[in-house]
Design brief:
Elements lengths: L20 H4 L4 H7 L6 H7 L3 E3 L9 E9 L6 E8 L3 E4 L3 H24 L8
Parallel strand pairs: 1-4
Antiparallel strand pairs: 2-3, 3-4
């Protein structure tokens, strides 16, 4: 049985649901999902993928790959996530995007682990 996250728990759009995720930091989406349990923070993900964090004044020597200009949350709780990714991989976060993305990753990780645990529980026989 394939796992999925119930719609009521999909309150964030995790960073690795973006179209560039697998090609920039990991070779496959499945690799990301299998590593989430051991990668407990965004910093751990960045470290595992050997990403270099650029400051706003850095001039990257690698080619530009993509820009994320999205948000997480709903209504008044919207928070912007804005960063650029360059070959290497190298990442430049703008404003407080790294902190917002870190919180989003923690929320996603908790939701994913909870759902995996729920789906791995054996079904109770009828009549119990």
């Amino acid at each position: 049985m394939a796992w999925s996250i119930p719609s009521e728990k999909r309150r964030i759009r995790p960073w690795f649901c973006l179209p560039w995720d697998a090609s920039v930091f990991f070779t496959k989406k499945r690799e990301v999902l299998t590593q989430v349990p051991e990668l407990d923070t965004l910093d751990a993900v960045l470290e595992r993928s050997n990403a270099v964090i650029l400051d706003e004044s850095s001039v990257p020597c690698g080619g530009f790959l993509c820009r994320s200009n999205t948000h997480t949350g709903y209504g008044c709780a919207l928070e912007k996530i804005f960063f650029d990714v360059y070959a290497g991989p190298k990442v430049r976060f703008y404003d407080n995007s790294r902190e917002v993305l870190s919180r989003s990753y923690l929320d996603f990780r908790a939701c994913l682990l909870e759902e995996r645990k729920r789906q791995r529980q054996p079904d109770k026989p009828q009549g119990w």
